[in-house]
């Protein structure tokens, strides 16, 4: 066999070795590109899953923070103590009592207790420091002088009458009376005692106004 024929045969075998089953020559860089594309797609899918997981964790964290803030605020209100007891300091005239005018707000000037500083002796009004259910008690004593007239006092919330108590004179002796009530107050709402009837009220320990927080809301 001549050298020329041997060279042609070798070339033919080399070409055959480069041809795939489909007859297409596949370069090594083609394989690398496909692998990279698959890798990118897998990474994108993984990143999407991670982002969804992070979003779910963020929602859970936001819910937990909101619940913690609400709980902290509630604990703050529960731990708030509010209570007051007030009366008149003077009781010089047991027959006529301390003078009262029509619809006068009683300004009790002797503060026995004022936890939370809700009662203001300058105005005679109690201001709720927190929203909640409050109890109020009023004990009164009518003067003995019948000329003063029957005594009527009212517990008022924001200019709305809640309850009242009335005392009168019997055989030239004054008569005691009392009333109590539980009401819901928003923070900042006010409660006070005002005159409804009579021109005088006993002072000292005989007429006492008390209020306290039962339950913060």
- Given the helix and strand composition, which structural class is it? alpha+beta
Please provide the count of β strands: 14
Q: What is the element string, with H for helices and E for strands? A: HHEEEEEEEEEEEEEE
* End-to-end C-alpha gap: 110 Å
Q: Estimate the helix proportion, in percent.
A: 25-40%
Spans of 5+ residues with little confidence (pLDDT < 50)? 19-25
- 3D shape: rod-shaped
- State the domain count: 2
CATH architecture of the largest domain: Sandwich
CATH class term of the largest domain: Mainly Beta
**Rg (C-alpha, Å):** 45 Å
Physical arrangement of strands within the biggest beta sheet = 3-1-14-6-11
The overall pLDDT average reads 83
Q: What is the CATH T-level topology of the largest domain?
A: Jelly Rolls
Number of H- or I-type helical stretches: 2
Strand content: 35-45%
Largest pleated sheet: 5 strands, antiparallel
InterPro entries: C1q_dom (IPR001073), Cerebellin_Synaptic_Org (IPR050822), Tumour_necrosis_fac-like_dom (IPR008983)
Main location: secreted
Keywords: Secreted, Signal
Protein name: C1q domain-containing protein
Descriptive notes:
With 217 residues, the protein is α+β, with helices and mostly antiparallel strands. It has two domains: 12-78; 83-216, Jelly Rolls. It has two helices and 14 strands. The chain has helices at residues 3-18, 28-78; strands spanning 83-87, 98-99, 110-115, 119-120, 125-127, 132-141, 151-157, 160-167, 169-170, 173-174, 176-185, 190-197, 200-201, 208-216. β4 and β5 (125-127) form a beta hairpin. It starts with a helix and ends with a strand. Mean pLDDT is 83; it is low at 19-25. It is found in: Secreted. Residues 77-217 form the C1q domain. One of its GO terms (cellular component) is extracellular region. InterPro entries: C1q_dom (IPR001073), Cerebellin_Synaptic_Org (IPR050822), Tumour_necrosis_fac-like_dom (IPR008983).
